[in-house]
Design brief:
The structure holds 2 protein chains of 2 kinds.
Chain A lengths: L2 E12 L5 E12 L3 E5 L6 H9 L6 E6 L2 E2 L5 H11 E4 L11 H12 L5 H7 L15 H14 L4 E5 L7 H16 L4 E6 L10 E6 L2 E7 L12
Helix pairs in contact in A: 3-4, 3-5, 4-5, 5-6
Chain B lengths: L1 H11 L1 H38 L5 E8 L1 H8 L4 E7 L1 E8 L12 E10 L10 E6 L7 E5 H6 L7 E6 L2 E13 L19 E7 H11 L20 H7 L5 E8 L5 H12 L4 E6 L4 H42 L1 H10 L3 H42 L10 H27 L16 H5 L9 H12 L1 H39 L4 E10 H9 L4 E16 L2 E10 L22 E5 H7 L6 E6 L6 E9 L7 E4 H8 L4 E9 L5 H9 L4 E6 H43 L2 H10 L3 H38 L12 H17 L1 H10 L2 H6 L4
Parallel strand pairs in B: 4-9, 6-8, 14-18, 15-17
Antiparallel strand pairs in B: 1-10, 1-11, 2-10, 3-4, 5-8, 6-9, 7-8, 12-19, 12-20, 13-14, 13-16, 13-19, 15-18, 16-17
Helix pairs in contact in B: 1-10, 2-8, 2-10, 2-11, 2-19, 3-7, 5-6, 8-10, 8-11, 8-19, 10-11, 13-21, 14-19, 14-21, 14-22, 19-22, 19-23, 21-22
The chains are: A alpha/beta, B alpha+beta.
The complex binds adenosine-5'-triphosphate and magnesium ion.
Amino acid sequence: MIAHLELEGAEKVYGTAVRTYALKATTLTIPRGELVVILGPSGSGKTTLLNLVGGLDRPSAGRVAVGGQDLQGLSDDALCAYRREKVGFVFQFFNLIPSLTAWENVAFAAELTGGTEGVDGLLGAVGLGDLGDRFPSELSGGQQQRVAIARALAKRPELLLCDEPTGALDEESGRQVLGLLESAARDGGRTVLVVTHNPTFAAMADRVIRLRDGGVVGVERNDAPQAAHAVAW
Amino acid sequence: MLGRKLRREIGRQKGQIGAVLVVMALGISLFVGSYAGYLDLDASYARSQRELRLADVHVDVVRATAADVARVAGLPGVEAAEGRVVVSLPLVVPGADRADGGAGSVKVEARFIGLPGEGQPDHDRVFVQRGDLPGADDEVLLEFHFAEGHRISPGDTLEVPLPGRTAALKVAGIAASAEYLWVARDAQDFMPGPQEFGVVWMRRDGIRTLAEALAPLPPPLGLGLALAGTAGGSAHATAVAAEAGASNQVLYMLAEGADPAAVKAAAGEALGEGNALASTSRDQLVGVRLLQMDVDGLRDMAGFFPVMFLAVGAFIVAALLSRLVDAQRPLIGTMLALGVPRRRVLGHYLSFSLGVGAAGSVLGALGGIALGALLTREYARELRIPFVSVEVRPGLVASGIGIGLLVALLAGLGPARRAAAIPPAEAVRPSAPPVGRGLTLFRHVGAGLPVPVRMGLRNLVRHPGRAAATAAGVAASLMLVLTTSALVDSMDRGIDLQFQEAMRYDLRADLLLPQPAEDLGGRVAGIPGAAVMETVLSLPVRLSAGGRHQDSLLHGVPRGASLLRSVDFDGVERMPRAGGVVIGRPVATKLGLAVGDPVDVSLLPSGTPRRLRVDAVSDTTLGGFTVMGLEDARGAFGLGGLSNTVLVGLASPGDREAVRAALQELPGVLRLHDVASVRVELGRMMGLAYAMVGAMLAFSVVLAAAILFNTATLAILERQRELATMRAIGRPMGSIAAMITFENGLLGLLGLVAGLPLSVWAIREALALYSSDLFSLPFVLTARTFGIAALGVVLVLLVAEWPGLRQVARMNLAEVVRSREG
Ligand SMILES: Nc1ncnc2c1ncn2[C@@H]1O[C@H](COP(=O)(O)OP(=O)(O)OP(=O)(O)O)[C@@H](O)[C@H]1O
Ligand SMILES: [Mg+2]
């Protein structure tokens, strides 16, 4: 097993006078190609953990390494390059650029690392081959989130980070989105981290990390993950 | 792809972007256009002066012989010198239709300027527009303002009344001269109408013949020398003109590198002790100065308004971009999360402002080129500039565009840098709108008040920066509109003061020589229709104090005079007591005189100084004069019992023609001064000034509207989400509108309160800019003007809510709620 993600005593503290531990010293190892579900109640530090791994934020102490490279030592520019080349993000509220069409939103990300040849294929893969011309405001929430996934995959990231990707979606769209994330890991060989507060998602994961009050309270391996479409809602 | 995003975003904010474009383009066009116009006109004047060899220095002398002139010409530093005769003579224009609407012949003061026997003089040449130079001694060349004012053409005949007969003069041609492109009689009377004053060129020998016929008039009481040049009469000049080979003006050109002051002193010496009266350098000639002030006005305009427009443009660009960045915080976070470098985010938002700036600048530069050409052409045509030089100025156009880009860049830099500094984690944590520090401090503001009021108040404390910007926008708008409207009020009040308080006569007759006042009074009293009559002694004097001098016209007015008074800008009468004089404000400033100070007054050209006391300082809109008691003046200058000016107040306006005709038939009348025609002339000139101020007012209104619309619209758009959510919750549109209105009303009020002192300051600055020793205006700020401006500003502010509110009303609530971007 090759460790893809490694956290060693990584912590995040907010404030100087009153110190809030958004993430207490955490040590974790995640192998490449796993679908990991991060569970925990609101305020438990899920987003904080994701931000550290994705290079959106720096740890207050400790070490975060991805693919053997330490992130905390990188300059702003290098961190930006890391995000550009290695990481794909999917957000709860999609965060599409409203003034670009679905196709253009994906192409925008694809351009950052290469060409736009793959865009049509990606949109087809998320089931939106016909809707590329639409603006985000002309798409349903689920469709928008699928565009966002296509956008995240457009850069061929080795790491896909999803924060509540189904949080704004109904059951049907949610399952579709989960299916896409699942195949990103299983077929694409990517490491996929999915943050959720819905415990039933644990069933589809290779690994489940449970957080509470900024600390990891449990890591479980799941040797027989369920298929995404079978996950109870 | 980001370029596409930008273009679509620009497309979505058409209204505001359009406003910025208009404002920026206007700013750049005004800059490029008025500056190009200024440069072209300035170059055209300079070229005309050069081509027509307008002398570097004009020296008024008591009397210069050919030998005197030769001595001046031989001085080191003098390239060439020439003597000439300048003499005022009455000239009768036998006319049918007059420009002032009257009929019948008019007697005008004509300034005869001598020409050599053949061809052009060496200095101060003329530019013949129609006809020819005089071909015989009894032919004249007319200055074009005069010819046009009387509709005279070459071939017509004019008359000079002489004792016992009239001399008929044939008009040979019509010409322009560099000295009289603006026809000024002197510094006191700098815009006489063609009905009272004109410039005429005639061969030196022809002038001598006329002067000989007039010279036998006995100069009374040794006054012979007293009345040269400036005003009243010209007995002395006539005497010089009657003498073959004598001159009363010497013109010279400076050699390159000569020191003008040294040459002036040397010329004074060469002409003999006390002979040189006044030495006027080219750019100090009254007409040249006035024209230059006119052109400089264009240059000031090229400075002030573009700066205002660009400042407002920058303000709007910054506001627009700020709002865009605020609204797109999560998006910017997303872009950064996707790995877009910060440089590119900075560049992205900068290119928004640069794009707008570039479009505005290019549009503006094109407009400016057109405006500049138009300005030069219209000015040159209106003023009949003989030699026009128009240049294409790529440098000026490029700097106009450069300035526009720079302004846009600076305006965009702040918001763009803010965008680039957004932490990428904002993408993930859909940020609650940051609560301003204001709200935590004023958590209980407005508690217990109706909801719209409470929310309005809280919005103000929540965004103190935005509130301050809106109030500042209102204050700036008020200042712009109020300052320009107050200029109009000042002009009106200034003219009223001039004609209703200071110059209250209808007709004034200036005599060639002083006459016994009793005879004069008797004759005028006999004219039917002349209801009020006063005789005055008007004398050209030199005022001296502390080693400095100022020439002025002194009026000796009878005690209790009602037709000619000195007043100040409050309309308060300022008359002298025995042994005192009242001087004009510019003279007081120039000589450093205050009330109670002694001042030496001597009769020009070469009287003995009399020590007098400054009793008061008066304000006049046009020119300025010195006032003294009539008996005092007669005593001081040895002119007992004499007057040389008659002032007449008409019984009714219908008597004007009859009284005019009778007055101009009085023996010894040089010219008639008709206040009605002065007002026509003034109206023409003020028409120009009103047009200028009107354009400024229009600009100000455009600017104010742009500021107000943008601040009001943005204040709403910034909170579109918030307002849409309020609607979604079920708050009716009316209540939202009430909240916004309350907020804007409050800010408007704040802006007005701050804008008032700002406006007073700006009005004073503007008046100072426009006033000189020739012209000054009273400070006027009426409640009415303030009320209209303030009401206008507040109304525009409230109307400006419309587009924003309509957008909120039309917003697809479902869509707003679904997408995260506001
Ligand atoms: N900028 C900040 N300043 C101070 N505290 C913060 C900040 N950001 C997050 N926190 C705190 O850190 C803790 C963890 O936040 P985090 O966003 O990681 O929670 P989460 O598990 O993602 O919650 P949710 O499920 O609600 O999204 C919370 O208690 C939060 O209040
Ligand atoms: Mg979270």
